[in-house]
Amino acid sequence: MEFRRSMEAETTKRWSLTLGNATIRQRKRALLFSLAVGVMTIALIPISGIQLANFPDFLAAHQTAIIAAYFIAAYLIFAFYRANHSLSSLYLCCGCFYSGVVLLAESLSFPSSFAPQGMLPGGPQNTVWLWYFWHTALPTSIALYALSEWLCPGYVAVHPKRTAGWFAVILAWVLVCSIAAVTVFHKSMPLLEINGSFRNISGMGIAPALMAVTVIALLLLWRATGFRTVLHVWLGVALIALLFDTVITIIGGDRLSVGWYVGRINAFISASVMLMIYLGEINRAYRKTANSVRRLATANALLEAKVEQAGLDFLTALPGRALFTERVRSQRTRNIGNGTIVAVLLIDLDGFKQVNDTLGHDKGDLVLIQTADVLRSILRGTDIAGRFGGDEFVVCLFAHFSEVQADMMNIAGRIVAGVGQLGNGIGCSIGISLCNADRLNLRSALQQADEAMYLAKKHGKNRFVIYGQPHRTEAA
Q1: How far apart, in whole angstroms, are the C-alpha atoms of residue 86 and residue 91?
Q2: Rounded to whole angstroms, what are the CA distances from 463 to 58, 311, 346, 374?
Q3: Count of alpha carbons within 13 angstroms of residue 391, beta-carbon side
Q4: For 217, which DSSP code?
Q5: Rounded to an integer, what is the distance from CA 35 to the centroid of its chain?
Q6: How far is CA 119 from each of CA 23, 97, 109, rounded to the nearest angstrom?
Q7: How many helices (H) and strands (E) does the chain have?
Q8: Which phi and psi angles does 358 have, rounded to 5°?
Q9: CA 1 to chain centre
């Protein structure tokens, strides 16, 4: 398998909760949690050998919860691997998945769970050996994770699917061997449990070896990561809870003892920690995505505002030629096929050159601004106005064919009257062209309106002319 160091890993570290550096508060919280588990376990050691009643519902609930926790954690960690292709995360994924499968097999091996002697074929040592396998597997997977982070920090798989496939093959082989050991070859397995007692585990040195594996995994994790990140801190907590599970279970010595029940609780805590790490990651990723969407929407709105502003005439704040054309096309698209008629009004100021020459350009600029204000005060929300340069303005109206004539003449008349009230000899001539929205060609419409506008000037100014009706002029 090939691996490479990638900037993708560094990018992931910056946004990931689990790979983000742990704060002092987070470290203290994890330490207090570990101390609580340790104090509770140690306080119960003196009574750990006391036998309690059999609570079948407790065992069923415990097994269901812990199996679900490991399987969900494995799924979430694999999703994390698919996102960043981090090699080390595959070790954790395999450890959780292996533990879930072995715990499921352990549940099937319990006497009277689904059958008087359990559903899993084999012998009476099935349950204890499966317990031993998954207590060994999780520390081993964390140790491999730590070694990967130590020896190959930040490495990702070059071929993610192929790498995951190889891990799946190896995991399947280990699972087959584990299940075969307690079923097919159960007679060859050493006796760890005798009449419900685990005391033989300590005498054979298996329990100390199991504790040693857990402690070594904890030390490797510390050496490789220094518990820098949230993930590393809580992986340490999971190992500590699992270590206390082993300790009090072995000291309790017998099935259904206080130590056995407390061990089950510690095992559930260990599995829950693995799950909660990645549920927290999903929660943070969701909040980060939601915040990103909000920021993106705000940025888009600002961008649209800037683009819109960039298309506005600097003096009158009306759309320039490009923005006017874009708005007309957009409005046309929304009105295709519904019988809408478009009226294009080309407005040219009368007497503007004389104001500029005699009163100055500042006064001329004021006239242009006042003309734009007149248009804004008259036009409706669906009407589009723009300035094409100099003293030339343009308005585009969209209306149903039964209404367009009246609307167009009303608005044109009001514009002529409004501009005429600006004083200093200022007036306006308007040329109007009409066409169906389905066939609108803005360039042709403007040319027709321009011809009509010159006819309006020819007929005495301060009036409007409709293209195609050269003998009909309307003065305000």
Answers
A1: 10
A2: 93, 30, 12, 16
A3: 22
A4: H
A5: 35
A6: 48, 21, 6
A7: 15, 8
A8: -95, -35
A9: 31
Task: Please tell me the distance from the alpha carbon of residue 142 to that of residue 231, in angstroms, as a whole number.
Answer: 11
Residue 193 has which token pair? 């449990």
Q: How confident is the model at residue 393 (pLDDT cuts 50, 70, 90)?
A: very high
Tokens of 308: 């819109």
Is the Cα torsion angle 308, 313, 314, 316 positive or negative in sign? negative
When pLDDT is cut at 50, 70 and 90, the band that residue 473 belongs to is low
One-letter amino acid of 357: D
- Cα–Cα distance for residue pair 173/433, rounded to 1 Å: 81
The answer for residues whose C-beta is within 8 angstroms of residue 289's C-beta and 6 or more apart is none
Tokens 């499966």 correspond to 130
pTM of structure: 0.61
What does the buried/exposed string (b/e) look like for 180-205 if buried means 16 or more CB atoms within 10 Å of the residue's CB?
ebbeeebeebeebbeeeebbbbeeee
Element (H, E) at 393: strand 392-400
- Say how far apart CA 98 and CA 92 lie, in whole Å: 10
**The two three-digit tokens of residue 221, written as one number:** 């994790």
Three-state DSSP class for 349?
strand
Spatial distance between the Cα atoms of 373 and 421, rounded to a whole number of angstroms: 12
- The pLDDT assigned to 337 comes to 73
245 contacts 263 by C-beta, under 8 angstroms: yes
pLDDT tens digits along 405-459: 888 889 999 999 998 888 888 899 999 998 888 888 888 989 999 999 999 888 8
Count, residues in the chain: 476
Tell which residue, 56, 152, 165, has the closest CA to residue 107.
56
3-state SS of 58-94 is HHHHHHHHHHHHHHHHHHHHHHHHHHHCEHHHHHHHH
